[in-house]
Amino acid sequence: MFDAVLIANRGEIAIRIIRACRELGVRSVAVYSEIDRDALHVRSADEAHLLGPTPPAASYLNVERILTVAREAGVDAVHPGYGFLSENADFAQAVADAGITFVGPPPEAIAQMGDKLSARAVALAAGVPIVPGTLEPTDDPEVALAFGEEYGYPVAVKAMFGGGGRGMKVVGGASEMREALEAARRESQAAFGRAECYLERYLERPRHVEIQVLADLDGTTIHLGERDCSLQRRHQKLVEEAPAPGLPAHVREQMGTAAIGVAREMGYTNAGTCEFLLDPTEDPDNPSFYFLEMNTRLQVEHPVTELVTGVDLAQAQLRIAAGDGMGIAQSDVVLRGHAIEVRINAEEPAAGFMPTPGPIDRLVAPLGPWVRLDTGSESGSEVPRDYDSMIGKLIVWPDTRDGARARMSRALDELVIDGIPTTVPFHRLAMTHPQFAAGEHSTSSVEREWDLTGLEPQTPAGPGADPAEPSRQVVVEVGGRRMEVSVFGEVGGGGAASSSTTPRRTRSAAGAGRAAASSEDLVAPMQGTVVKYAIEVGDTVAAGETVVVLEAMKMENTITAHRDGVVTSVAFAAGDVVESGVSLARIEDAPA
User: Fold this and answer.
1) Angle 107-114/89-97 helices, nearest 10 degrees?
2) d(CA 201, CA 220)
3) CATH architecture classification, 132-201
4) CA 395 → CA 285, 290, 333, distances in Å?
5) Which among 191, 232, 254, 363 is least buried, having the fewest CB atoms inside 10 angstroms?
6) Residue 469 and residue 487: Cα distance in Å, rounded?
7) Considering the entire predicted model, what is its pTM?
8) In the chain, what's the furthest Cα-to-Cα distance?
9) 4-103 architecture in CATH?
10) What CATH number does the domain located at 521-588 have?
């Protein structure tokens, strides 16, 4: 086993690997950016080193600096976690060239799977079906339009080197193609440093089912069953579970065989995940499946597989990389019970999952049997706008799926995150939603089929509420009955109200510093960077029409007009950083 491992990441995944190292007796070395100086992963590691300024390019993506720290710390392995450099073949090669072990697959395998078109070629060579699509990248709208004409709409424009839903746009018709191709290329360049995109036929109501594989240096490759990750928004996962509900046993076996075939075709080692789209529309008892991509790293949702198999995937990665093998065979893999994971993100579900970076005033983890919270946050932590919106993952395990839903509902009720809006209200809804309960949801369900209007905003709203002042929950008794009420502003009686405040639900500090805005001002709903204005001064716009695109927490967000009128001024330019609540543009009544 290694003597020391550098974790080239941050947050909850860094802590996950630090814990695996500690149990194996391995010295853990953390790295951090300036904004993460006091982060939990920094304090949890045996030692920690500053990488540089907050922007990822100057810190967590700075290969030269990471390798310098690795040499200074005397580590003999680097674990990339997920995101950042985890699927960067050049980084894996640079680590190897420095005489350090990369905890992951060979650089060649990362390169093959990182390029989504070469990944499709590998799947075809392994005899695994793929979704119809282009075999070459394109930036030509005419090529994209011709593809749509041949295969029909909707069409998915996808980043060749992307993942996690970034750099992917769904095109409903020819009129949308040019803008979608431009936006996908722009988002892909910002997130992955590469802008190339390709086209795929978009399956309108598939399930997203993936297979976890492990492959050691001796040539043994096994799979650890499947995960269903169909509950998504913006093509990013919200809820994951294992095993997949209602998946026929013979289809599970076929998908497992296919995943092993892809891994062997490319000489894969370490942990990886083959993602598939499952199409049950023609025959629910024998659904078709198509290879989507292979993630050459540990997945965010790996805990559900750990809970149903009893295999510690982070430790398995370290053992395989050290040459110790897996210690298990395919016959040892037995799926027991059911696990569900929800991603707790700094987002407002009632506002289209708008990013909500900011400070966490208080965080209290739920307890009880078979409840696990993986997080890199704590009371007083900051969720920076520079990185991903995920605060942590809540995972539960009982013996049945219905039991898992009930346990998750209970755990969500116990979870306290005070200070910023989070996805917790959505997860409460999801656990009791009839479609999810029946296992009949798809990747498009949340955005196309679910009614989220019942989710109350976690920020002050309505007449008389000061948008610059958050609410707080106060416990009162009325007729002997204990009740919680939202209070805005000061309450008479001195400190009595604050002393009984019970932070049971999320409140928002997003309004802090909000500029005074008139009804003509289009106000920024979040912190972000202006990508572009879609209008010019003097243009006439209708309510709901795109005015400006803001990038926040690695995602582009479209800000639309709040009223009909004429754009009389814009306040910023592309590249400007804006605060929540400032006026982005002024839309006045059109002249009579």
Assistant:
1) 170
2) 34
3) 2-Layer Sandwich (3.30)
4) 29, 28, 20
5) 254
6) 10
7) 0.81
8) 78
9) 3-Layer(aba) Sandwich (3.40)
10) 2.40.50.100
